[in-house]
């Protein structure tokens, strides 16, 4: 049997059939992994250091070129300023600054803008700036700006404009300090060269809104409009005179009450800082006038009462009885009324009435 199978090579076929079939490996199945070849190149330590230094120098050179490029695109930039920056500040501004505390601008609001510091540069308009710049060549970050007129600003900038916290000393010695936006102060305080201090909001660089103003015993609390006292407010003067009411363009105008330190009082209309219109004026001795006023004086028609009961009803001119009027005593009926004409406060002509005569 075996000979027959071997004769026809069937024994080999049967053995191959009984053996398991070897399948080719799938592409994702790992077969024999090649060994990694590691080539070791000896590098000395000083060569690593030199290469690192070269990279640093290249990076520094790139940043320096970027800074210079930023300055080249600044509009109006003239040349580097080599002098003493403080000498370009006006004398009045320097004197005021010497009496102030050192200004601390604090930290700016985060805006994630890369800034660079440079020496002072002078612009074509003679403005000098020393501080930080962004990569667009704009004043950005902390800096000091001295203008051609001798005024000095110290604080923060953003895209070429004064921003956030800063202090400006004008050439005349006025001080603006507070929060800035779009190049102008909008909230803070103003200290004038005469000693006046104002805490207020600002609009276009002018006092605007509610504020408080103080100056050598003089006090105001109220509204401002474009730099002037305007609207409702109260004022206490150095001599303790007091006013509360309406203001217009820095003057008392509208309705208001004024109380003098000696006890006099006026309540009524005002115009151009004077009593004008209808009002009531009282004296400490009990006298009382109710009528019209013009340019701060009783003028027109009014009634004056005395504490003893005497009453004048009639015309007034520049603070005095002038024209026709009537004088009588409401407490003493035995005193006959006096009708007549007054001139500069004096009775000059009496008018008599004859009862029953036609």
UniProtKB/TrEMBL annotation:
Pfam families assigned: MORN (PF02493)
Membrane in keyword set: no
Keyword terms: Repeat
InterPro entries associated with the record: MORN (IPR003409)
SUPFAM superfamilies: Histone H3 K4-specific methyltransferase SET7/9 N-terminal domain
Top-level taxon: Eukaryota
Family matches, as SMART domains: MORN
The protein, known as: MORN repeat protein
Top-level taxonomy: Eukaryota, Sar, Alveolata, Ciliophora, Postciliodesmatophora
Keyword Zinc: no
């Amino acid at each position: 049997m075996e000979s027959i199978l071997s004769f026809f090579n069937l024994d080999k076929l049967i053995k191959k059939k009984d053996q398991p079939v070897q399948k080719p490996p799938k592409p994702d199945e790992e077969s024999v992994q090649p060994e990694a070849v590691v080539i070791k190149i000896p590098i000395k330590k000083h060569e690593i250091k030199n290469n690192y230094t070269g990279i640093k120098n290249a990076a520094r050179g790139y940043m320096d070129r970027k800074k210079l490029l930023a300055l080249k695109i600044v509009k109006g930039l003239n040349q580097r300023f080599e002098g003493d920056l403080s000498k370009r500040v006006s004398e009045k501004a320097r004197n005021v600054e010497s009496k102030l505390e050192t200004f601390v601008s604090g930290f700016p609001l985060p805006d994630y803008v890369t800034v660079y510091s440079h020496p002072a540069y002078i612009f074509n308009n003679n403005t000098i700036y020393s501080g930080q710049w962004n990569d667009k060549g704009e004043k950005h970050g902390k800096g000091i700006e001295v203008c051609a007129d001798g005024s000095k600003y110290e604080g923060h900038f953003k895209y070429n404009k004064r921003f956030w916290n800063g202090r400006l000393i004008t050439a005349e010695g006025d001080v603006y300090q507070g929060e800035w936006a779009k190049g102008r102060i909008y909230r803070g305080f103003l200290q004038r060269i005469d000693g006046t201090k104002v805490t207020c909001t600002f609009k276009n660089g002018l006092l605007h809104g509610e504020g408080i103003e103080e100056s050598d015993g003089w006090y105001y609390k109220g509204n401002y409009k474009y730099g002037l006292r305007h609207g409702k407010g109260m004022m206490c003067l150095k001599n303790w005179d007091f006013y509360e009411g309406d203001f217009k363009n820095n003057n008392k105008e509208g309705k208001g009450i004024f109380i003098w330190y000696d006890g006099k009082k006026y309540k009524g209309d005002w115009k151009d800082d004077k009593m004008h219109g209808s009002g009531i004026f009282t004296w400490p001795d009990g006298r009382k006038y109710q009528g019209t006023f013009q340019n701060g004086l009783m003028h027109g028609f009014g009634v004056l009462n005395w504490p003893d009961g005497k009453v004048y009803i009639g015309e007034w001119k520049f603070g005095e009885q002038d024209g026709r009027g009537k004088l009588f005593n409401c407490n003493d009926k035995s005193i006959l009324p006096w009708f007549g004409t007054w001139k500069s406060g004096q009775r000059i002509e009496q008018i008599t009435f004859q009862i029953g005569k036609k």
